[in-house]
Structure formats: structure tokens, C-alpha cells
Amino acid sequence: MREIRSVCGQINESVGEKEANLLTAISSQRHEAVKQCLALTSEVKAQSQSLDLLEDQVNDIVALTAVHSGTDVSNSRSLTSRAKQIPRQPKLGQVKVEEYVASLEFVKDAKLLSLHITDIVHRPVSSGPALVEVKWRTLDDIKDITLSAKSKDPRGFDVTTTVYLTRSMTSYIMTLPWVNAEYTIKLEGTAENGAMYPPVHRPIRTMPYVHCFKARFNPSTCHKRVAVSTGKEEVVHRKCKMANLQSACAVTTSFQRLEKLEGAMTDDCLPILPFVYWEVIVHFQVFGKLGDSKLLCDVGICKQGTEDASSLLCDNQKSYCAYLVRRNNSVALEFWNGPNRDTLPRSIPILDLTREKEKSLRLGFYFDAMKRVVAIVSPGNNTILAQFYVKTTNLIAVCGLYCFEQVFTMVKFTDPQKLPTVLCKLMKWSHGN
User: Fold this and answer.
1) 131 near 148, Cβ under 8 Å?
2) Least confident of 58-62, 219-223, 227-231, 306-310
3) Class of residue 174 by CB neighbours under 10 A (exposed 0-12, middle 13-18, buried 19+)
4) Superfamily assignment of 114-209 in CATH?
5) How far does the chain reach from its first CA to its final CA, in angstroms?
6) What is the CATH number of domain 211-430?
7) Where are the chain's structural domains?
């Protein structure tokens, strides 16, 4: 009996040892499978990004060629269509390879074997270096993180920007020397035991500069009832009892004034450039009985030479604008597409007349002459409010002021305090990404 027990014990030990070895081997194979999945995912991302960068370059060449030759950019489609026909993997946001790998049962309780870049957010700039925010998912036993970006200078030499970060950080805004340039982002991590995790690479292209348009009103072309400040950045209605005219330009004789539209326009047309941006502050105060559907003001752009085609900018067939109007017990912001004779199906309440009578609103305007795109954005909320595709680039900024007996309205051009990041989305869209 003792011998039988001894033999059974030996058999159990042998079986247990073999099971442990088998489980170790299977676990190692599973971890290796995870590594290969992540490596393949990174490779697909890199290849897709490279194709997108090539497509950007093709689009830039098409746009520049069309502009210099005097042809319509919107009809220059041949090279663009060829670039879009390049076979590529589906968008990884749809494939969700990493999400699938992470959902596997044997991965849930295991530690992934490398850092992972989750997002790259471009910050728009009008001067200086490019700004790129890199976000990543870290690991539990990370001790140090190294983030670098490599590019080539105009002479073809490699230039690398490197920062050393602590384990607690999961994002960082990199300052890179050049805008509109290709970089390779590399993220590396060191474990607490000194081991190095495999580096993660991501190719990117930094955004071009945003051209901040310094718009100013022209006191010699505004309507005779509209006052322009001496700095030319602000307009009010002269007939409004709340208007302060002490800082207004003196009234002069001019044969170029607006006659139908009680408003003002800028000195110059919008520059024929991509990525043009300017901001407007609209301040209004309701002090009288304002009827329903009454207009307070409108702000936007129209084709040069058609500024006085209508008594309302939001009724001009050559204009694109935002306007403030009373809707029931509120003042709402709405949008007009003149060539389509269409009011966009979006009405945004700005002020509740039952609670308050005064409000200031900041609006941003984006214009890309190469792609014929105009957009109105909210800098505060960092959102796109309206977007239009225009048929001409010969455009001028205009505003109109109404209901001066019930509302005091001031429209002012202002320098952007901070460029909204949503501009990068518009810049990518206008390049067909």
C-alpha cells in the first residue's frame, strides 16, 4: 500500500509539473500573439498615414497648379482621384483591432507589452513653431517615458526633438521646429527593473500656419446711419439712443456708401489664401419691445460689388452669414446660404428674454480660398456652427444693424485670443482627409 501511494504521488507531481510547463508555454505564446497583433496594428497605421500624407501632397500640387494656371480648383480632380484609388486598409477606427485584442479573455488579466499612442491632436498656430499634443496609454510598471519627434531640415539632415517625462504623464504638447512638415513620433518606456519596452512609432504631418486676417471697417463706405470707431474695428447704429458716438469717425461726404444695407464692410477683400481666420464680437442689449422674427444684426461675407444688393445681408443671394433674430422668448443665432436661397436648419438660442436683456457673442470665421470653403465657428465651445462651399473667392466681410429703436447692437473685429483647435479639423477637411 505504501508503494502504491508513493507511485501515485510521483505520478501527481509529474502531471502537475507537465501542466505547469504547458500553461507557461501557452501563456508565452498568447503574449507573443498579442505583441504581433499590436505590431501589425502599428504597421497598418503607419502605412495608412503614409498614404494620407502622399494624398495631401497630391492635393497641394493640384491646388497650386490650378490657382497659378487660373483654372477652377474644384474641377482639378484627375490626380486626386488617382490618389484615392490607391489600395489601402480600412480605417482602424472601423476595424478596431486593438479593442478586439484587449477584449480577449487571456488578455484581460495580462499586462500588454508596450506603450500605446491613443491620439495626436494638432494645435493651430499663426506664427512660431508647430504644436502637437501626443496622448498615450501607459503601463503599471513604467518608470520613465521618452517622447521624440524626428524630421529632416532643409539640407536633408535629421533633426530630433526629445523630451523626458515622468511615469504619471499620459499626454504632452510638443513644440516642433517646422509647420507643414513630416515627422516621426516615437514613444519609448523604461520599466522599473531597467528593461526597455518596444518603441511605438507614428508618422505625422504638422499643420500649416493659420493666416489671421486683420479686418477693419471702412468709414467712407458704411451706411450714413452707421458709425465706425476711430480704430475702424467697431460699428454701431447712429440713431440708437444708447450709442456712444464720442469715439466715432467724423461723417464725411462719400459717393461710395451703402444705401440699401444699413451696415458696414471692410477696407479690403479676403486674401486669396488657404486657412484665413478672423473673429467678431457681437454685443447687444434689448431695451424696447422687440417683435417676434425681428432681426437684430447679421455678420458674414458676400461677393464684392454685391454688398448693397439687398436691405438685409441675410437676404443677399451672394452672401453667407450668421444673424441674430427673435424667436418666441429668446434671441437665436441662425445661418444663411445666399446662393442656395436657404436658411440652414439650425437655430441656436443665445439669450432668454424672460431672464436677461444683454449678451456678448464671439464668432470665428474660417476661409480657404483654394478649396472654396467658408465656416463659422464658436471659439468658446470649439465647435463648427455652419459650413459653406462658395463659388467665388472675391469676397468681402460685411455686417448689418437693425431695429435700432429697440436694440443696441455693436459689432467689433477682435484679435483672436487663442486659435480654436477645431480649425485643424477644418484644415484637414479642406485637404480631403
Assistant:
1) no
2) 58-62
3) buried
4) Immunoglobulins (2.60.40.10)
5) 79
6) 2.60.120.920
7) 1-111, 114-209, 211-430
